[in-house]
Write a structure and sequence with these properties.
The complex is a heterodimer of chains A (about 400) and B (about 300). Chain A is about 40% helix and about 15% strand. Chain A is of the alpha/beta class and about 400 residues long. Chain A has two domains: about 160 residues, Rossmann fold (3-Layer(aba) Sandwich), CATH 3.40.50.1100; about 220 residues, Rossmann fold (3-Layer(aba) Sandwich), CATH 3.40.50.1100. The radius of gyration of chain A is 20 Å and the shape is globular. Chain A has a six-stranded mixed β-sheet, sandwiched between helices. A four-stranded parallel β-sheet of chain A has the order 7-6-5-8, with helices on both faces. In chain A, a hairpin with a 2-residue loop joins strand 1 and strand 2. In chain B, helix 5 packs parallel to helix 7 and helix 13 runs antiparallel to helix 14. In chain B, about 50% of the residues are buried. Chain B has a single domain, classed as Aldolase class I (TIM Barrel, Alpha-Beta Barrel), CATH 3.20.20. Chain B has 14 helices and eight strands. Chain B has an eight-stranded parallel β-barrel with strand order 1-2-3-4-5-6-7-8, surrounded by six helices. By secondary structure, chain B is α/β, with parallel strands linked by helices. The chains are: A alpha/beta (about 400), B alpha/beta (about 300). At the A-B interface, helix 8 and strand 11 of A face helix 4, helix 6 and strand 5 of B.
Chain lengths: ~400, ~300
């Protein structure tokens, strides 16, 4: 896997790096060191695998969507159901890993940012389990639109702080978490929730998420005796995509497709974008500690973004994903809000699975792609989370005839 | 209220006398005298003779370009210079100012709402440079010069009369990738390094080697903002830092009162007052804003 790994300076090609205030550098160095030590440590791996299995319920199923495949009449569709993890999404994978590392470093407190609330929920859960105190930063807009997760985080003992600066979404929550870390560097571990941010977060979270692809490889070989032809995942920061793709990077016959949030269409002005499709109109920049593509204006000011799903509503993208795009290893596309809602309905009605709106971006692309492919082709789509948390959004858009008002 | 005469006010002449007094007192005490010489040496290394030595420390203040308006940030800067600031940081507003506290963060957001561009900031600095003699620095985040084109940015900054750049999120570790230090050097801009009291010695040594102008030391961990208590083990940490760092030291983040200045004035060559002035400005009544800022500045240095 030599082509895809990080170089000595913490960069993937020109992307990535550690562009942080000096005060945070020693913290990242310590984290990096502990991470690399840990993954060589058999005991650490054993403990992590134990938690994956017994705490989170791994392996998650790889489910053949028979009805959906028949309906679309093309390639076979397999769904990796990460929504069946404990806490409802793939986020628990890196939270368990990072919690063990934080414990090893002797930290007492976890902080995290969250968009959809899935990462915050997973962080609050591991904090409760391992006895950390926990603070979660969440943009006010997300705080309001993902209320169920706020409620659960608080029940788990976390302090959820709504962030009122900027666009009041994921990016602002990350900024606030970084400020917290600057103020409390000794006791706190920042449990960053995606494959963005300064080195070692992208490489570390990819490592913990790569369990997804590893399981898929075993499961698909067992079920079909073949490797898949297409892997599809949605991309906010990129953690579920990197998790699915990593194991297959070397196998160039497998097409990797990322789906960004197309929002209300690829339109924007100097301050605001109606989407979060970084690979459509983003430019190279250095923000929040790493170099990658960002939605920004000509002066380098980061734009506010829009997506129906809080988890993809982010102006930057993971550096390794940007690198893979730059060498044409992955294909990037986007799904519009309305296509996402349609996919959400279709999957529910055909297969009885209510997926998170984030994951429905990947489903939407699958629905577009499958009919164009011959029947023997195999698509694996990552259903990164389940959709319970989206009630307040989906109920607004989808008319439910028989819902009795209480 | 705002005067741009040079040489400046009575206060500063007094300041110079004060300083003579300060040195005279130290006579007879060899160790103290050595300290003074050491401090003098450090001051001269970077700041050069261009700034009249008016105090035993220099004051660096901070404005956000375009906050509350472009015109008003200019007025603020002129007032600062007039009341004895020796250096001024001009922050180019950025959408994601991760190392700034609430006050400056909000100022950044408002300046952006005012549609302040990078070009506006160059023009502001150029304009100020024609009216004040003290060094003016740009403070911003790396994405701004990166997007502008680092070379082009440095060239333009130098042309505008900029003394140096303070950019918190470009650590020396990224030099191989970005060539930030070498480009600053080429355009004769001081790339001001930032450290904290907790910066480990191995990194301090590396920073000492690349230091240019002065070194900005944050006097408490955290983002910019006021704090009432100055850190306890300041002396111990500063001693370690001064052993390694040989250029002048600027202490920043959290200085807000005359008492703090009295306490810190012997400890570093430059003291930084950032968000306090903006806070005073923000909280003052509509037509009293500049008066309050001016009276705060004058009590600080009196």
């Amino acid at each position: 896997m030599k082509n895809y790994l990080l170089n000595k300076n913490g960069h993937f090609g020109i992307f990535g790096g550690r562009y942080l205030p000096e005060m945070l550098i020693p913290i990242m160095e310590e984290l990096e060191e502990t991470f690399y030590q840990s993954i060589k440590d058999k005991k650490f791996k054993k403990e992590l695998n134990y938690l994956y299995k017994n705490y989170s319920g791994r392996p998650t199923p790889l489910y053949y969507c028979e009805n959906l495949t028949r309906k679309l009449g093309g390639a076979k569709i397999f769904l990796k159901n990460e929504g069946l993890n404990h806490t409802g999404a793939h986020k628990i994978n890196h939270c368990l890993g990072q919690a063990l590392i934080a414990k090893k470093m002797g930290k007492k407190r976890l902080i995290a940012e969250t968009g959809a609330g899935q990462h915050g929920l997973a962080t609050a859960s591991v904090a409760a389990k391992f006895g950390f105190s926990c603070t979660v930063y969440m943009g006010l807009k997300d705080y309001q639109r993902q209320k169920p997760n706020v409620f659960y985080m608080e029940r788990l003992g976390a302090k959820v702080i709504p962030v009122t600066t900027g666009g009041q979404i994921l990016r602002d929550a990350i900024n606030e978490a970084l400020r917290d870390l600057l103020a409390n560097p000794k006791e706190t571990h920042y449990l960053l929730g995606t494959v963005c941010g300064p080195h070692p977060y992208p490489v570390m979270n990819t490592y913990f998420q790569s369990i997804i692809g590893k399981e898929v490889k075993k499961q698909i070989l067992k079920q079909t005796e073949k490797l898949p032809d297409y892997l599809i995942a949605c991309v906010g920061g990129g953690s579920n995509a990197m998790g699915l793709f990593y194991e297959f990077l070397d196998n160039e016959n497998i097409q990797l497709i990322t789906v960004e949030a197309g929002g209300k269409g690829i339109k924007e002005n100097e301050r605001k974008a109606l989407h979060a499709a970084r690979f459509q109109t983003g430019k190279l920049g250095v923000v929040e500690g790493f170099k990658s593509y960002f939605l920004q204006n000509k002066d380098g000011q980061i734009k506010e973004t829009h997506s129906i799903s809080a988890g993809l509503d982010y102006s930057g993208v993971g550096p390794q994903i940007a690198y893979l795009k730059s060498i044409n290893r992955i294909k990037t596309t986007y799904a519009l809000d309305k296509e996402v809602l349609k996919a959400y309905k279709t999957l529910a009605e055909e297969e009885g699975i209510i997926a998170a709106l984030e994951s429905c971006h990947a489903i939407a692309e699958t629905i577009k792609l499958a009919p164009k492919l011959p029947k023997e082709k195999i698509i694996v789509v990552n259903c990164s989370g389940r959709g319970d948390k989206d009630y307040f959004i989906t109920s607004k858009y989808i008319k439910t005839k028989n819902l009795i008002k209480i | 209220m705002v005067k741009e005469k040079y040489p400046r006010t009575k206060r500063q002449v007094q300041g110079m006398r004060l300083e003579e007094g300060f040195y005279n007192k130290k006579e007879g005490n060899q160790k103290a005298e050595k300290d003074v010489q050491e401090r003098e040496k450090r001051k001269n290394i970077a700041l050069g003779p261009s700034i009249a030595v008016s105090k035993d420390f220099k004051l660096m203040t901070h404005i956000v370009a375009g906050y509350p308006s472009l015109k008003q940030s200019e007025t603020l800067a002129l007032a600062m210079a007039d009341f004895g600031a020796s250096l001024i940081e001009i922050q180019i507003p950025f959408s994601d100012p991760i190392a700034d506290g609430q006050t400056i963060m909000r100022a950044n957001a408002l300046a952006q709402k005012n549609k302040i561009t990078v070009e506006d900031c160059f023009k502001l600095l150029e304009k100020l440079k024609q009216r004040v003699k003290i060094p003016l620095l740009f403070m911003t985040y790396y994405n701004i010069p990166f997007t502008y084109g680092l070379e082009r940015f440095c060239h333009k900054a130098k042309e505008s009369g900029c003394y140096g750049l303070i950019i918190p999120d470009i650590p020396f570790d990224e030099e191989k990738q970005e060539h930030y230090l070498s480009i600053c050097k080429r355009y004769k801009l001081h790339a001001i390094q930032i450290i904290s009291l907790l910066t480990p010695e191995n990194r301090l040594k590396k920073i000492a080697k690349i230091a240019s102008g002065f070194i900005y030391c944050v006097s408490r961990t955290g983002t910019t903002g006021e704090s009432k208590n100055v850190q306890k083990n300041l002396d111990k940490n500063l001693k370690i830092i001064k052993k390694i760092i040989k250029v002048p030291l600027a202490l920043g983040f959290g200085i807000s009162t005359k008492q703090q200045i009295e306490y810190l004035r012997q400890k570093a060559e430059i003291l930084v007052i950032g968000s306090k002035i903006l806070n005073i400005y923000n909280h003052a009544a509509k037509f009293e804003k500049m008066n309050e800022v001016n009276s705060f500045l004058s009590t600080l240095l009196s």
